[in-house]
Amino acid sequence: MIHLAHSPDADDIFMYYAIAFGWVDSALGLRFHNEALDIETLNCAAIKGKYDVSAISFGMYPMIVDSYALLRTGVSFGNGYGPKLIKRQGENLKRHFKVALSGAHTTNAMLFRIAYPNAKIVYKNFLDIESAVLSGEVDAGVLIHESILNFSDKLEVEREIWDIWCELAKEYLPLPLGGMALRRSIPLHRAIDIESTLTKAVQIATQNKSLLSSMLLSRNLIRVNASELDTYLNLYANAESITLSELQIRAIDRLFALLHEAGIYPKPTSCQDSFIPTEYASLRYS
């Protein structure tokens, strides 16, 4: 049994449930048990090595590079969009403003800390950030996941994390948000099969978007309505989620370099050194 953890957000649910519904089988006959938890909980669990396969924030991957391989599938990027720094309408943020972020290990939080080194940060479940800003508990907050689609008209966007990313990266690259990691202790032939199974699941999900969306909605497996689901999947679970492109790999490597340069991680990390060597599958039987 392979224990696979993902977030309860619409994109992760969508990309995984082709397996849960029996649309995809493992070539080795592996069975999957899934668990849905918020992304910061998953990031912390990955640091402890809790799950065989887990969704993670790309920004925290260098923390687990020695114990987890980076998968090429199940990825979510922003491209002209992403998390949003919001505040109450008409208010000006002071230099030391108090902000609510969704977790210290999330990509958006790491980029935010580089851009706003003087902000006073508190961490909250992402579902509680909007209300914390509205109540005045904090001056601002960064909305992620489905929260970016529909928030109170008493709030306004101060800045897009996408814009911060472009300024820091100094080139136009997609913003690496979430990916999947697999425990390195899993035998290589199993690891290759797991990645292949997950890749097929994402591919079949995107090819059957309408049917799968309808099934998820009818079973109350997601938190958004049909219109919001369609919008959200167009953003974060699409053809570019199936397998990493060269441009996406460049973007992840640029993120890792930025975080290393900022002193967040002591040593550099690269994608190519982190992937499962899938060429082993053909060599094994040659």
Write the layout of secondary structure elements.
Layout: E1 2-6, H1 10-20, E2 32-36, H2 39-47, E3 53-57, E4 68-70, E5 76-78, E6 84-88, E7 98-101, H3 107-115, E8 120-123, H4 129-135, E9 140-143, E10 155-160, H5 161-169, E11 175-183, H6 188-207, H7 209-218, H8 226-236, H9 246-261, H10 280-284
Parallel strand pairs: 1-2, 1-3, 7-8, 7-9
Antiparallel strand pairs: 3-11, 4-11, 5-11, 6-9, 6-10
Helix pairs in contact: 1-6, 1-7, 3-5
The average pLDDT is 94
Q: Main β-sheet: number of strands, strand sense, barrel status?
A: 6 strands, mixed
**Relative strand content:** 15-25%
Query: What is the CATH superfamily label of the largest domain?
Result: Periplasmic binding protein-like II
Topology pattern, helix = H, strand = E: EHEHEEEEEHEHEEHEHHHHH
Number of helices: 10
Number of strands: 11
CATH class of the largest domain: Alpha Beta
**Rg estimate, integer Å:** 19 Å
Q: Regarding quaternary structure, how should these chains be classified? A: single chain
**Helix-residue proportion:** 25-40%
Look up the CATH topology of the largest domain: D-Maltodextrin-Binding Protein, domain 2
The SS-based structural class is: alpha/beta
The number of domains is 2
The CATH architecture name of the largest domain reads 3-Layer(aba) Sandwich
Low-pLDDT residue spans: none
